[in-house]
Amino acid sequence: MNARWRSLLLLVVFVTGCLTATIAPARDTLTFGVFAYRPESIMRERYEPLVRYLAEQVGAEVKLEVLSQENMSRAIAANRLDFFLTNPSHFLLIRSERSLTGVLATLVRRAGDTSTASLGGVIFTTTGRDDISGLEDLRGKNIASPGVHFLGGFQAQTLELLEAGIDIRRMNRVRFVDTHDRVVRSVLSGDSDAGFIRTTLLEEMALASPGFLSQVKVLNRQTLAGFPYLVSTRLYPEWPVVALPHVDERDVRRIASALFAIEPEDEAAVAAGITGFSPPADYQSVEYLARTLRVPPYDQIPQVTWVDVLHQYRIWVFTIVVLVMLLFSGALWLARSRRQLATQQKRLKRLVGDWPQPALLIRDGVFVNTNRAAVDLLRYASNASLHGKSLGVFSPEIQPDGQLSRQKLEQILVRVRGGYVEQCEWVLQRSDRSEVWVDMTLAPVQDERETEPVILCSLYDITRRKRAEQRQRLAASVFDHAREAIFITDGHGMVIDANDAYREITGRALNRAIGRLPPLPLEEGSGVFASARHQGFWTGEFSCKHQNGEALVLAMTISSVCGDRGEVSHFVGIFSDISRLKEQEQKLRVMAHYDSLTGLPNRVLFSDRLQQAMALSRRQGGKLAVVYIDLDEFKPVNDAFGHEAGDQLLIEIASRMRSVLREEDTLARLGGDEFAAIVMNVQQADALEGLLVRLLARVAEPVWVANHSVEVSASIGYTLFPQTDDLDGDQLLRQADQAMYQAKHQGRNRYVGFSAPSG
Amino acid sequence: MQRRDFLGFSIAAGFSMAGLAGCSKSGPLVFGVHPWIGYEPLYLAKEFGWLPTSVILSSGSTSGDSMRGLLSGELGGAALTLDETIRVWSQGTELVVVAVADVSAGADVLVVRPHIAELAALRNQRIAVELNGVSGILLLKILEVAGLARGDIITVDLPVSQHAEAWAGGEIDASVCYEPTASALQREGGVRLFDSSDIPETIFDVLVVTRDTANRNPGAVRDLVAAHFTGLRHLVRSMHDAVYRVASRQGIEPVNVRNALATVMLPDLAANQRYLVASGRVEAMARSLSRLMLSEGMIRSEPGFQRLCDPAFLPRSVP
After folding, report:
1. Which of B244, B250, B258, B261 has the highest number of chain A CBs within 10 A, making it the mutation to test binding with A?
2. What 3-state class would DSSP assign to A242?
3. Which of B48, B240, B253 sits opposite A237 (nearest CB)?
4. Closest residue in chain B to residue A229, using alpha carbons only
5. Which of A153, A170, A371, B119 is deepest in the core (most CB within 10 A)?
6. Strand, helix or coil at B57?
7. Between β-strands A194-198 and A174-176, what pairing exists: parallel, antiparallel or unpaired?
C-alpha cells in the first residue's frame, strides 16, 4: 500500500516538474560571467561588446559579470550565472563541484593576423637577472604566481618544472598574488625572482607599453612554429564557454550559435582580442595535468581498493607475496635455528662449565676459556686467573719422565695443530706448589676460518691412581721378592697365583701350581680352608714332600680375604720351609737327653724314664729294678792311656752293657764312669741277679784300647721298686748308689742289693 | 622521390645520419624514421625525454634512407609503409611488424579533371603516379575497384612533386598524389574522385624491426614501442600542443598538421593488438599486397613470410 502511494506521489512530482520546465519562459536577463584574469576595467572593456552582441543575437538582456575565481565559484553555486568563460583549470574545478551542460565552445584568441586556440604558460624574469637562464636556476628562487587554479599561471609551469626534476611546490617559494598583472609587477619590482603568467599577457602588456618586452626574459622558451606567443611550456586548449544546466535550452542554443557566428572582423571579436569561438576542444590534457600535479579537483588520492591493486599488479603482488612468504619463513627458520644454536651454545657452555672434569680451551698457546673444575684442580680463585696463561705456567720445570715441560709441551702442541689428538700423563703444579698428576687429552677444534686452531685440553686427575699404582708396585715387589712362599687361592682353595718362593720351596712350576691345591697337612687336607673361613686364619706346621721327593716341613698361615659383601672370596697363604729348623731342634733335643760320648740317655732322660717306668709299674703292678754301675779301676786307665783311650773304653763298656740289657730296659750314663740302668719287669730276684752277673762278666772282658788290652771291672748296687714306702725316683737311685758303695766296700766287681739299714 | 617525403623535404638536410649509422647492433636499437605524421609520436617521445637510451632514432629524409639502412644492416628497425616492408623483405631482410603507427584514411588521393565523373571513366586517361611508392599501390587498388587493367590507362610515372606542373601544362588527366599536392590540384580545378578512405585499412604505416633485432634485443624493441605509444598519447590528448611541435619540426603551418592528422587514423594500443594478431588485418593485407606487387612486377619474388606481425612487444598499458 505504502509503496503504491509513494509511486503515485513521485509521478505527480515528475509531471509537475516537466510542465514547469516546458512552460517556463526564457529568462529576461542572462548573466555572462567572465573570469578576471586581468584587472576588471580591462576585462569589462574587452567583453562588453561581446555581451552586447550576444544580447542582440539572443534578443534578451545579457549582463556581464567580471569575477575573480572565488567569486565566480560562489556565483555559480548560487546559480547567479547562466554562462561563464574561465580558464580550463578553473572549469575543471567547477565541473567537479556541480554538473554542467558541458563546454559550448572554445575561445580562439587573436594574435595579430593569426589566431590560436591554445594557451600555455610563461616563465619569466627580468632581463638583468643573469643568474637565471634556465629551469635549473629556479631552484630556491622566489616565484610569483596568480594562483593554483591558473592553468597558464601555475599548473603548466609546475608540470614543466616537475619533468625537469624540480618540484617547486615542495620548495615552498611560490607566492600567490591573485592576478597576472601583480605577478608582472612583483617580478619587475624585484620582489620575486621569477614569475608565472599565461601566454598572451606579455604581448598584451607590450602593446600597452612599448619596450616592455625588452625588460623581461622568458625561460625555457619553446620554439613552436605558428604559435604566435612567447611560451615556456607545452600548450593546452584555450578557455571554454560553459552553460549552466538551469539555463533554458533555447537560450543555450542561441548563445552557442551566436558565439560560433562571430567572425574575426566583428567588433565584439576585435574588442575581446579573439577571432571567435571554435567547437569545444578536448580538455583531457588539462585533466591529465591536474591529475599529475594532484591539484584540485584531483588532489585526492584515488581510492584504490585491494581488488584494483590485485587486478593491476597481480603478478607483482603474487611475486611479492611469495617473496614475503619466503622471507618470513626464512626469517622464522633463521630465528629458530638461531635459537637452537643459542640453546645449544648455552647448553654446551654449561656442559663445559659444569662438567666435573677439568676442561680448558687453548688458542695461540694460552687459555681462553676454562671451567670451574679446572680452576678447582689448579686451586685458583677464578677463571680469570687462568686466562691468558699457557699450560707451561702450571707445569713444573721437569716432568717425571725427565723431559723439560716446555719442550715436551711444544712437541705435543705441534702434533695437535697437525690435527692429531694427543693423550699423555702430565704433572701440573698447583697454586700452592703441590703437584697433581693428570691424564691430559689435547684435541684440535677445527674451524676453517681460523688459521690457528682452538685446542680443547681436558684433564683427568689421576694422582690417587698414581699413588695406588705405587702401592701396588710395592706390594707386587713384596709378593715377587719375598723369601716366603705366598699364594692366593680362590674360595675353594685352588691356587690362582703364587710367587717365585712358592715355586722354589715346593719345586712346582707355576703353571702346575695354579689351579691346584697348595701343599696342605696330610691329616687335615683342605679342611684348613674351612678353619680359615671360620676363624679368619689357619696356621700350622706340617710335613710334605718337595717335587723331587725331599721331605719338607712347612710353617703355613692361611688368611681369608673377604669380598665386597663380606663373603670369603679368596685365601692368601704364606709359608716357609722350616725343615732345617726342625733338624736343629732335634739335635738340641738329643743333646739335652743323651750322653754325647756313648749315645746313652743322660741323667735328665734317665730321671724322666724312671718316672715313666715307675708310673707304668704302679699301674701294671710289675716290679722294676734300678741298677747303679760304677767302673772300678777306670781312673788309672785314663791316666795311663789318656782321655781318648778312656773315652774308647767307656764307649766299649757302654755298648757291652747295652747289649746285655733288654730292649725295654734303659741304660744311662750319669757322668764319668758311672752308669745307671732301669730293668723292667723284674719277676724274680734270680733273674735279676743273673742279668747282673752277665753284666759284670761282659764288663770284665778285656778291652783293646790304645793298642793295649785293658781290663776293668764294675761295682753294682741295685734296688727294687715298689717297696713298702712310697719312693720317688731320686730316692730309688740313691738307694742303688748306696748299694753300689757297699759293693765297692765289699771288694769291687760284685753286686749288692739295697737293704734298708736295720735300725 | 617517394611518398611521405614532402613534409620533411625542407628540413631533411638538417638531419644527420652520420653519427648514428655506425652503431653496433648489439648495443642500442638504431631505428630509422623520417618525417610523416604517423611517425610523429616517436619524435614527440624523443622531445619530451620519453625515449630510453636503448633506442636511437636515426632520422632520414625519406623512407628510401630507412630501406637502405635496413638492407645494409645499419638499422635495426624503421618506420615504413607496408608495401615498403614487403619490398625490403623481398630483398632478403626478414622483418617483424611490431606496431601500426597509422592507417591512411584519406591521405592518398586521386585527383581528376572535372569531366571524369567516375572511376570507370579513367579508361584511356593519362594518370600521373609515382609507381615506386605507396601511390602505386593506391593506383593498383583504384584499378581493382574500377575493374580496369593496367593497360586500360596511360600511366605517367612522375614524382608527386612534379604533378602540379604537369597538371598546369595539361599533360595529365588525373593524379595519384597526397597533400599538399592534392590541395594544389584541387585549387586548379581538380576533383577528388577517390582517396584512401575509400579503401579503409589498406595502407598501413608500421614500425618494423629486423628479425635479428627482435630476437637479440627484445628489450629495446619494447622500449621503442612503448615510447611510440607514449608519444601517441601526447599527440592525441594534447593535440593543442602537439600540432605546434609537429609543425615546428616539419617547418609547416599548424593548420597543415591538423589537416594531415585528419587524413590518418592513429590506432591506439587496443587497435594495435587487433591489427597485429596472427592472420590479422595487417598480415592479410600484406599477403594480398605482396601478391599484387609480384604480379605487377614491383618485386621480384614473393616474401615467404609465415609470421609478419608480433604483438608481443606491445606494452600492457601506456605509462
Report:
1. B244
2. strand
3. B240
4. B244
5. A153
6. strand
7. unpaired
Question: Does B49 reach chain A within 8 Å, measured CB to CB?
Answer: yes
Tens of pLDDT along B100-140? 999 988 888 999 999 999 999 999 999 999 887 788 889 98
Q: Is the complex ipTM more than 0.90? A: no
Q: Which of A163, A235, A282 sits opposite B244 (nearest CB)?
A: A235
Gap between the Cα atoms of A42 and A48, Å rounded = 10
Tell me how crowded residue A337 is: count the other CB atoms within 10 A of its CB.
11
Cell of A360: 680448558
Among B231, B270, B246, residue whose Cα is nearest residue B52: B231
Listed residue (A608, A625, A618) closest to A716, CA to CA: A625
Residue A14 — pLDDT band, cuts 50, 70, 90?
Answer: low
Calpha distance B249→A225 (Å, rounded): 8
CB-neighbour burial class of residue A355 (10 A; exposed 0-12, middle 13-18, buried 19+): middle
Instruction: Check CB contact of B251 with chain A, cutoff 8 Å.
Output: yes
pTM (2 decimals)?
A: 0.56
- At position A1, the amino acid (one-letter code) is M
Q: How many whole angstroms separate alpha carbon A669 and alpha carbon A654?
A: 8
Crossing angle of the two packed helices B281-295 and B82-90, in degrees rounded to 10: 60
- Interface check for B48 against chain A (CB to CB < 8 A): the answer is yes
Out of A118, A120, A224, closest to residue B248 by CB: A224
Q: Per the CB < 8 Å rule, is B240 touching A118?
A: yes
C-alpha cell at position B220 = 629495446
- Residues of chain B neighbouring A281 (CB-CB closer than 8 A): 240
Residues A490, A496: Cα–Cα separation, whole Å: 7
From residue A455, alpha-carbon distances to A346, A351, A370, A378, A534 in Å are 19, 17, 12, 19, 58
Give strand ranges (E) for A467-550: 485-490, 495-498, 537-545
CB-count burial class (<10 Å; 0-12, 13-18, 19+) for A105: buried
Coil/strand/helix, residue A690: helix
